[in-house]
Each structure stands twice: as C-alpha cells, then as structure tokens.
Amino acid sequence: GENVEQHPSTLSVQEGDSAVIKCTYSDSASNYFPWYKQELGKGPQLIIDIRSNVGEKKDQRIAVTLNKTAKHFSLHITETQPEDSAVYFCAAAFGNEKLTFGTGTRLTIIP
Amino acid sequence: DAGITQSPRHKVTETGTPVTLRCHQTENHRYMYWYRQDPGHGLRLIHYSYGVKDTDKGEVSDGYSVSRSKTEDFLLTLESATSSQTSVYFCAISDGGSRSYEQYFGPGTRLTVT
Description:
The complex is a heterodimer. Helices cover 0% and strands 59% of the residues of chain A. By secondary structure, chain A is an all-beta fold. The mean pLDDT of chain A is 95. Chain B is built from no helices and 11 strands. The mean pLDDT of chain B is 95. Chain A binds chain B through residues 1, 6, 32, 34, 36, 42-46, 49, 89, 93, 96-104, and chain B through 1, 4, 31, 33, 40-45, 48, 50, 56, 58-59, 90, 94, 96, 100-108.
C-alpha cells in the first residue's frame, strides 16, 4: 500500500522565522496532497492542499510545493506566530477516496 | 468541525466489553471514515464507507466493525474491547466529486480500555 514519511518529527523555530516540513510518498499514482493542523484536544484541520497538476500553492503565510518526479512535497510557513504551534500532518491520496497520513511534526514557535 | 459530531467524547470501559462510537454529519457527504490516532503512528484508517450500507476495511480493521444505515450516521463497534484499542478515534467525511479526497474531521473520541 501507500507509504508516507514525514520529517522532522519535532521542530522549534523562533517567532518570525520560517518553518519547513517535508514528506515523501511511495505511490507514483497519488494525485492529491493535503496538510492538516491539529491543535491540542481537537481534530485535524485541513489547512492547504495541492493536486498533482500544479507545483506550488500559496495561501497567505503558508505554501505547499510538490515535486512529482522525486515524490516529495513540503509545507512552508513564513513569519511564524505563536498560534502556529501545533502538530502538522501530511497525507497522500490512494485509491477510492482514501488518504495515507504521515506520522506528524510537532511545531513549537519560540516567542 | 464541518458539521461533524462524535459521541461519546470520552469513554472508559473494561476489557472484554462491547463499545460503540457514533459519528454524525449534517453535510450530506457520501464518504465517511474512522481513524485511530496513536503516538508515533499518525492517523490510521480503520474502516470507511462509500455510501449507505457500503463499507470496506482500512489498514487496521481487526477487532472493529462498522455500520452505516443512514447517510448521516457511521457507527464503529469494538465487539470485545482490548487494551490495545485504547486510542483517540476520529471520524472524517468527504464529498468526493470535484472536491475529491478532501476530508474533514470531527472532534474525536478518547477511549480508554482498562
């Protein structure tokens, strides 16, 4: 089945700096790559996604890049703020409306 | 949480007892999913449904069963709970079509099996 690897597992950055989280996937047929943010005690929230027909997508301070040849995609957060502290999950689509998730990155923004 | 509720939100039960978790949606989405979340494993798919009475297994389905008799409700049953099923369970929904694969999650149910 599909396998998604996510790195790093923990990341600490100074407030105002940028954060980058990377994921690789195994199934070359995957065509949808979402990112989720999970705050303590809550369900994951879809924050941005990208489909395989584009290489980059931006939404204010967050962006996702996709390299289909290398089978990896990344989440970029610029000008980080304390409210960006959370656990972030990447995922890749496979067969019949299913997603495989990475193991998560705990992002801590240091004031 | 995109019109998704889960009940109960917290439950403590004993080994060997049956447990049913409920997911209810008000979005009329076709697809519904049950995941479990454990440290170091991310979110793993237990079962999913692609329509009323249409369900299939995910990667960690052993010990779990599901039912979907109405569009809005998806039930997850642990026939005989074990300590290894202590976890946080999330329901998700997806509409398919032009928004294919976009999944939206409920608030979760924390289950402890003693």
